[in-house]
Structure formats: structure tokens, C-alpha cells
């Protein structure tokens, strides 16, 4: 189900994992790869249609929360402020939230607004982890380089889990590992 405001979000009964990322980071593709359900998350949302949270319930054991994408070139200051307000309120009001997965396009690495979102996550005091997407697009040496850079930044953030996982929804790289990690978090 989708929720454009926090009044209509589902009750916090089961462990929850949230997914955040710049628009086009590969979030919908990753959620689909993790769940094996091709039609679960819309791929390539357009600006304006994404300003809502989408919730996916998995087997009554776990909830995935798909946070709206950020970093649209056409987003106004007001759009960005609304995004921050909605996401911060969500993060602060979700006692069942086990971890937030922040997706980073491995071809781009961390950009300014990714680091701003990390600061927001620090401020909300929620546990989060950086996951690289589209790893199939890089050569192994390039991937190692971006992994080190992202890890170095995440170590500077108090609430960040100091591990960076590289994934590809296309090749399946890192998907079983991430799925296992999330399943383990859901059972704690
Ligand atoms: P979202 O906006 O973050 O939900 O991103 P999408 O899942 O819609 O993906 C954005 C674009 O990146 C689409 O064209 C996808 O086909 C492409 N993409 C997503 N994941 C991968 C991946 O693992 N490898 C490659 N090569 N392309 C991907």
C-alpha cells in the first residue's frame, strides 16, 4: 500500500526495513530483486509520483518501506523541505524500524545530497547501511575504489553500519547476502 501522509501508514506491528536513495539509484529494481516479485515496486518513477511511502508486507513477518526518491534535478527547495519533513517524521515515529538501507549508484558514488541524507539519518538516530547498486556497470578495480570511498564516509557517521555491500539487480550480485542480512535483522 502507499501512503502520502503519515496518518495513513500501516501499523508498526512487524519488523520493518526502509529503503532510501536518489531517484534512479535502482531502488525499485533492488526491492524487486530482493523479493523476487517483478511487479512489487514501480520502476523509474517520475518526479511528483514518488512523494509517498510505499509499504510491502512480506509473509506477515516483515515490512519493507520504500521511501520517496530524492535528488530530482527539477525539485524545488520546497519539494526538498517537504521530503525531509515527511521522511524525518517517518523515521522518528517507527519503533519497528530495524534498519534503513541507503542505496548509492556505484557509478556515481556519494553525492552531496546523499551525504545530507546521511546527516538526516544520523539526526533521526536510526541504524542505516549503505548499499551500492548497479555494480555490474563497473570494472572490479573501479568497484573496489567506490566501495572504499563510501566505506570511508560511512565510518564518519555515527549511525551508519560500517559495512558496504555491492549489489546488482541485473546480475544478482550481493542479493542473497543482503536478503539474508535483512531476514536476520527481522528476526531480532
Ligand atoms: P529507482 O528510481 O531508484 O527506483 O530506480 P530504478 O529501479 O527505477 O532503476 C533506474 C534505472 O537503472 C532503470 O533504467 C533500471 O533498469 C536501471 N538499473 C537498476 N538496477 C540496475 C542494475 O543492477 N544494473 C544495471 N545495469 N541497471 C540497473
Short description:
With 188 residues, this protein is α/β, with parallel strands linked by helices.
Explain what this protein looks like in three dimensions.
The chain is 35% helix and 22% strand. By secondary structure, it is α/β, with parallel strands linked by helices. The protein has a single domain (2-186), classed as P-loop containing nucleotide triphosphate hydrolases (Rossmann fold), CATH 3.40.50.300. It has a 7-stranded mixed sheet, sandwiched between helices. Strand 5 (97-105), helix 3 and strand 6 form a beta-alpha-beta unit. The longest helix is centred in the middle third of the chain and has 16 residues, at 77-92. The chain binds guanosine-5'-diphosphate. Residues 21, 23-29, 43-45, 69, 133-134, 136-137, 168-170 line the site of guanosine-5'-diphosphate.
What attributes does this structure have?
single chain; 188 residues; 7-stranded mixed beta sheet; alpha/beta; 35% helix; binds guanosine-5'-diphosphate; 7 strands; Rossmann fold
Query: Which residues sit in consecutive blocks of at least 5 with pLDDT less than 50?
Result: none
Q: What fraction strand?
A: 15-25%
Question: What is the element string, with H for helices and E for strands?
Answer: EEHEEHEHEHEH
Within the largest sheet, what's the order of strands?
Answer: 1-3-4-2-5-6-7
Work out the helix count.
5
CATH topology: Rossmann fold
- Helix/strand-derived category reads alpha/beta
The share of residues in helices is 25-40%
Principal-axis shape? globular
> What oligomeric state best describes the polypeptide chains here?
single chain
Distance between the termini: 25 Å
CATH superfamily: P-loop containing nucleotide triphosphate hydrolases
Radius of gyration: 15 Å
Largest sheet report: 7 strands, mixed
Amino acid at each position: 500500500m502507499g501512503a502520502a501522509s503519515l496518518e495513513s501508514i500501516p501499523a508498526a506491528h512487524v519488523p520493518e526495513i526502509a529503503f532510501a536513495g536518489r531517484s534512479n539509484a535502482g531502488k525499485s529494481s533492488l526491492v524487486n530483486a530482493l523479493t523476487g516479485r517483478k511487479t512489487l515496486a514501480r520502476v523509474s518513477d517520475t518526479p511528483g509520483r514518488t512523494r509517498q511511502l510505499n509499504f510491502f508486507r512480506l509473509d506477515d513477518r516483515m515490512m519493507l518501506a520504500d521511501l520517496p526518491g530524492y535528488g530530482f534535478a527539477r525539485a524545488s527547495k520546497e519539494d526538498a523541505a517537504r521530503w525531509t519533513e515527511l521522511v524525518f517524521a517517518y523515521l522518528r515515529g517507527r519503533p519497528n524500524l530495524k534498519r534503513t538501507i541507503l542505496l548509492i549508484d556505484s557509478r556515481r558514488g556519494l553525492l552531496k545530497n546523499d551525504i545530507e541524507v546521511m546527516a538526516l539519518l544520523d539526526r533521526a538516530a536510526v541504524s542505516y547501511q549503505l548499499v551500492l547498486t548497479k555494480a555490474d556497470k563497473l570494472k572490479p578495480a573501479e568497484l573496489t575504489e567506490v566501495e572504499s570511498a563510501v566505506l570511508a564516509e560511512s565510518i564518519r557517521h555515527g549511525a551508519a553500519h560500517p559495512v558496504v555491500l555491492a549489489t546488482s539487480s541485473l546480475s544478482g550480485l550481493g542479493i542473497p547476502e543482503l536478503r539474508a542480512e535483512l531476514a536476520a535483522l527481522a528476526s531480532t
